[in-house]
Amino acid sequence: MICEEVKAHLLDYLDKTLDTPTMTRVATHLISCAPCGAEASELADCIDQVAALPALEPPLGFAQRVMAHVREIEVRPSLWERIFLPWSHWTKKMPLQAGALLMVGIIGIVLYQKDDRLKTTEPTNRPLSASIEPGNASDESKLVDSRQTDKKKEPALQSPIALAKRAEPVPEKKPLSLPSSAPSQSAKNEVEARLEDTQILRRPPIQVQEASTMREPGRFSGDTGFAPPMPLGGLRSAPMALDRIIPLGERVTDHEFVVRRRPRRDLAETVGMDSTLKSAETDSVARPAASAPATPRIESIAEIRFYNVAPEHFEYFKKELASEAIIEAESKPAAKEKEVAGFDRLLLIKVTILPPALPEPSAPPR
Amino acid sequence: MVSEAISDAECVRKLQRGETDAFETLIRRHQKTIFNLVYRMLGDYDEAAEISQEVFLSAYRAIGNFRGDANFSTWLYRIALNHATTRRKSLNTRQQRSVPIENTEPASDPHPGPAESMEKKEIRQRVQQALNRLDPDDAAVILLRDLQDVPYEEVARVLEIPIGTVKSRLHRARLALKSELASYFYAGRKAV
User: Fold this and answer.
1) B79 shares a domain with B29
2) Which residues form the domain of B156?
3) Could you report the predicted ipTM of this complex, rounded to two decimals?
4) Environment class of A97 (CB within 10 Å of its CB; exposed 0-12, middle 13-18, buried 19+)
């Protein structure tokens, strides 16, 4: 056996796993060959040295210490187990995941609702300064449009009192913007004023009942120079027998009379004309006329009455009126009004009653 | 306490059924073997104690994956060598393996003679230093085969390599160890 063959079997030889004939041949070669014998001896020595290493005892209480850690692991599941525990363990032992899911859901709902709110409020939640910013023509037109829309809704809410107020001058509204936007505000006010006028013109006539200017019989105050209501059997005052609905803006009467009361010397002398004039001034009916241009006739208007008179009794009514007062003027109805009036209804007669004529001032004694 | 008479396989089954006390039996049965293997791999007693504890805890956590195809000891050897190899590499990287072996080598013979004790202790230190200088795979195969006397088949299963590879690796590892020890053991012999 040569050295190479011995080296190939050396491991098994040292492990004593070779068959007997081979073991004998290898052993014979190792005795006869010094280098192979020395190497085999050194290797065997190494194996013996390693095998001779003493077996050390583990630290005291090693097993107990390991078991203590094992029981800790039992009580506290690992992070991986906590994440992937079944749902029942989730809710009992580790509600972190459930809480996290709940929070995600709540945040999602809040964000969703917030987004909807933003979408809803975006067009109307703009700052006022932005809406009236100078040069922002589109915004201004939107503002005008929105106001026009509001105005269109307005007539349905009108009342006679509001309608009467409309005749008064519209008070100037306070500016809503900052002082820096004053030019824009003035332009806006102008636009509003125009819109106001347009709305008034376009507003359809409101059906209201006749606003009576007639005083009830026997309740005259101050005007002692005028007799109690005319004792006309066929005449009724308009408020007592209102049977027509007349547009206030288009007050149409069939006939109009302007009459002047006949003076009573005795009363005029005892009471004087101051009270008459005072009563004329305080009369609510005459108040609108008082604001009109100052003409002698209009200023002296004392009362306006309306009468419903049957057409066949009109001449009789006129005679009675002439007997009680001095008819100064009479307006005849237009042809169109006559057609509209017809004969199937009472005539509406407006009587403007002027106070008695003032006596001529006597010449001062010289 | 589980009886010491039952086999490893039965202890493993009990452990897999939730009987934690069965694991204590396995620890007591294998603690010395595993500790010595790890200690010879690392050369440090305290490190060996810590790593051995980690080995058993890892085995406990992974006991559900143990199918029983191999011996429990084979499986435990594999875990121990993995932990020890990883630890040894990290120690070599950090250059922390400066603990003198003299301070960590406990006395095995309670009543040795003074001269014999010193000589044996020196030999053990030299052998341990030589093992520490070996490649971890070479050290592992030597320790399994020559120290633990593990059969080739089981070594092959532990290292997950064929038996032929185990033998060739073992021969190569022994030659490397002989080279490491040559300066101490055989210099005088050659000089003579």
Assistant:
1) yes
2) 111-192
3) 0.84
4) middle
